[in-house]
Amino acid sequence: MNMADPTDEPKDGALQAGEPTASEAKADVADAPKPIDADDKKHLNTDDIEKLLNQASESLDEAVGGNVSTEAKPSPFSFNDLAADSSPAERAPIELLGEVEMDLRIELGRTQMRLEEVLQLRSGSVVALDKLAGDPVDIFVNGRLIARGEVLVMNDNFCIRVTELVGA
């Protein structure tokens, strides 16, 4: 296969459709941006930079499909209306939470003890708490206080009757 040099004119003098002439091909090669290597970086002048910037902005204009102004004023961002929607929202049934596991803790009271006192605890030892008998106990869910209640005994089991819900 024999490749023709693009700068050569056709021998028979006729051009095929769509082929550039030798002078057009040379002009295209001259206008094409040249890759910059380490030696060229030292010799880059203002005219070269302006030419590259013009080529970049022309390419940007083509990509956007119109003229891009460098002096365009930015417009402030506006949020959509953040007011509550007046239409009733579709609520998911509470049964969806039925399988969620949570840590429930009932706190009868607290005390502070030194390690020495803790090591001396035996079966039958009495630990005094900071609450009195009959005071409400605290009910915690996942470490957050949600309610207070009173201790009951039902069928030989301890139970808690909720007497107060604590708001956040």
TrEMBL record:
Residues 96-166 form the Flagellar motor switch protein FliN-like C-terminal domain. Residues 1-47, 60-86 are annotated as: Disordered. Belongs to the FliN/MopA/SpaO family. SUPFAM superfamilies: Surface presentation of antigens (SPOA) (SSF101801). One of its GO terms (molecular function) is cytoskeletal motor activity. NCBIfam families: fliN. Keywords: Cell membrane, Cell projection, Chemotaxis, Cilium, Flagellar rotation, Flagellum, Membrane. It is a peripheral membrane protein. Its main location: membrane. It is found in: Cell membrane. Residues 25-47 have a biased composition (Basic and acidic residues). InterPro entries: FliN (IPR012826), FliN-like_C (IPR001543), FliN/MopA/SpaO (IPR051469), FliN_T3SS_HrcQb (IPR001172), SpoA-like_sf (IPR036429). GO terms for cellular component: bacterial-type flagellum basal body; plasma membrane. It comes from the Bacteria. GO terms for biological process: bacterial-type flagellum-dependent cell motility; chemotaxis. This is Flagellar motor switch protein FliN.
